[in-house]
Amino acid sequence: MDPAPIAKLRSELASQVKRPLEVSEKSTQYWFDEESAAYNDIDIKVGDAFAVVVCQGALPSEELICRIWHRYADEVWLVDRAENNIFIVPREGVIRVFEVGETVRSIRLPDVAISVAAVFSIEN
Fold it and tell me: CB-based contacts of 113: which residues, under 8 Å, 6+ apart?
Protein backbone atom coordinates (compact mmCIF):
# COMPACT_ATOMS: atom_id res chain seq x y z
CA MET A 1 0.00 0.00 0.00
CA ASP A 2 1.30 3.44 -0.95
CA PRO A 3 1.95 6.09 1.69
CA ALA A 4 -0.79 8.75 1.53
CA PRO A 5 1.27 11.39 -0.38
CA ILE A 6 2.27 8.85 -3.04
CA ALA A 7 -1.31 7.62 -3.39
CA LYS A 8 -2.57 11.20 -3.73
CA LEU A 9 0.16 12.10 -6.26
CA ARG A 10 -0.57 8.95 -8.30
CA SER A 11 -4.27 9.86 -8.35
CA GLU A 12 -3.53 13.44 -9.45
CA LEU A 13 -1.13 12.29 -12.15
CA ALA A 14 -3.54 9.62 -13.43
CA SER A 15 -6.30 12.23 -13.76
CA GLN A 16 -4.10 14.78 -15.57
CA VAL A 17 -1.63 12.83 -17.71
CA LYS A 18 -2.86 12.29 -21.25
CA ARG A 19 -2.16 9.50 -23.71
CA PRO A 20 0.22 8.37 -25.09
CA LEU A 21 1.69 8.76 -21.57
CA GLU A 22 0.57 6.25 -18.94
CA VAL A 23 0.84 6.39 -15.14
CA SER A 24 1.77 3.16 -13.35
CA GLU A 25 -0.73 1.62 -10.96
CA LYS A 26 1.87 0.44 -8.44
CA SER A 27 5.47 0.86 -7.33
CA THR A 28 8.00 -1.25 -9.20
CA GLN A 29 11.55 -2.56 -8.91
CA TYR A 30 13.15 -2.54 -12.37
CA TRP A 31 16.16 -4.67 -13.30
CA PHE A 32 17.99 -3.16 -16.26
CA ASP A 33 20.88 -5.63 -16.36
CA GLU A 34 22.82 -7.89 -13.97
CA GLU A 35 24.38 -4.92 -12.16
CA SER A 36 21.78 -2.19 -12.50
CA ALA A 37 18.38 -1.88 -10.84
CA ALA A 38 16.19 0.92 -9.54
CA TYR A 39 12.94 1.22 -7.63
CA ASN A 40 10.25 3.84 -8.14
CA ASP A 41 6.93 4.60 -6.52
CA ILE A 42 5.32 5.89 -9.73
CA ASP A 43 6.45 5.82 -13.32
CA ILE A 44 5.06 7.62 -16.32
CA LYS A 45 5.89 5.99 -19.64
CA VAL A 46 5.29 6.25 -23.34
CA GLY A 47 5.18 2.58 -24.31
CA ASP A 48 8.31 1.10 -22.73
CA ALA A 49 10.16 4.42 -22.48
CA PHE A 50 10.23 6.25 -19.14
CA ALA A 51 9.31 9.95 -19.21
CA VAL A 52 9.13 10.63 -15.46
CA VAL A 53 9.74 8.52 -12.37
CA VAL A 54 8.69 9.38 -8.83
CA CYS A 55 10.62 8.20 -5.77
CA GLN A 56 10.47 9.07 -2.11
CA GLY A 57 13.32 11.07 -0.65
CA ALA A 58 15.21 14.33 -1.00
CA LEU A 59 18.44 15.76 -2.27
CA PRO A 60 21.30 15.34 -1.64
CA SER A 61 20.67 11.89 -0.11
CA GLU A 62 18.95 10.54 -3.24
CA GLU A 63 21.43 11.91 -5.78
CA LEU A 64 22.61 8.41 -6.76
CA ILE A 65 19.01 7.30 -7.39
CA CYS A 66 18.53 10.33 -9.65
CA ARG A 67 21.72 9.54 -11.55
CA ILE A 68 20.64 5.93 -12.11
CA TRP A 69 17.15 6.95 -13.25
CA HIS A 70 18.49 9.67 -15.55
CA ARG A 71 19.91 6.89 -17.73
CA TYR A 72 16.29 5.95 -18.49
CA ALA A 73 14.00 8.90 -17.64
CA ASP A 74 13.99 12.60 -18.50
CA GLU A 75 12.89 13.64 -15.01
CA VAL A 76 12.98 12.27 -11.49
CA TRP A 77 10.51 13.60 -8.96
CA LEU A 78 11.46 13.17 -5.30
CA VAL A 79 8.66 13.31 -2.75
CA ASP A 80 10.12 14.50 0.56
CA ARG A 81 7.63 13.39 3.20
CA ALA A 82 9.74 14.86 6.03
CA GLU A 83 9.70 18.41 4.63
CA ASN A 84 6.46 18.22 2.60
CA ASN A 85 8.02 19.24 -0.68
CA ILE A 86 8.61 17.81 -4.14
CA PHE A 87 11.89 18.05 -6.04
CA ILE A 88 11.90 17.87 -9.83
CA VAL A 89 15.34 16.79 -10.98
CA PRO A 90 15.67 16.95 -14.77
CA ARG A 91 18.33 15.04 -16.68
CA GLU A 92 19.48 18.44 -17.95
CA GLY A 93 18.58 21.83 -16.57
CA VAL A 94 17.73 23.34 -13.21
CA ILE A 95 16.52 21.37 -10.19
CA ARG A 96 13.32 22.85 -8.78
CA VAL A 97 11.82 22.42 -5.32
CA PHE A 98 8.10 22.92 -4.84
CA GLU A 99 6.82 23.62 -1.32
CA VAL A 100 3.39 23.80 0.32
CA GLY A 101 1.58 26.76 -1.23
CA GLU A 102 3.10 26.09 -4.66
CA THR A 103 1.93 24.12 -7.68
CA VAL A 104 4.15 21.44 -9.20
CA ARG A 105 4.72 22.05 -12.90
CA SER A 106 6.99 20.01 -15.13
CA ILE A 107 8.55 20.77 -18.49
CA ARG A 108 8.16 17.07 -19.34
CA LEU A 109 4.46 17.10 -18.36
CA PRO A 110 3.30 20.58 -19.44
CA ASP A 111 -0.43 19.90 -18.92
CA VAL A 112 0.05 18.78 -15.31
CA ALA A 113 -0.45 21.14 -12.36
CA ILE A 114 -0.54 19.62 -8.86
CA SER A 115 -0.90 21.43 -5.54
CA VAL A 116 1.84 20.42 -3.10
CA ALA A 117 -0.54 21.08 -0.20
CA ALA A 118 -3.07 18.65 -1.70
CA VAL A 119 -0.41 15.91 -2.08
CA PHE A 120 0.47 16.22 1.60
CA SER A 121 -3.16 16.84 2.71
CA ILE A 122 -2.27 20.19 4.24
CA GLU A 123 -4.83 22.99 4.33
CA ASN A 124 -3.35 26.05 2.73
Answer: 16, 103, 104, 105
pLDDT tens figures, 45-81: 999 999 999 999 999 999 999 999 999 999 999 999 9
Q: Which of 3, 21, 26, 23 is nearest to 13 (CA)?
A: 23
**Residues in a beta bridge with 7:** none
In the chain, the N- to C-terminal Cα span, in Å, equals 26
93: Cα separation from own chain's centroid: 16
What span, in angstroms and rounded, lies between the C-alpha atoms of 43 and 52? 6
- Distance of alpha carbon 117 from alpha carbon 50, whole angstroms: 26
Domains of the chain by start residue, with CATH: 4-119 (3.90.1570.10)
pLDDT confidence band for 103 (50 / 70 / 90) = very high
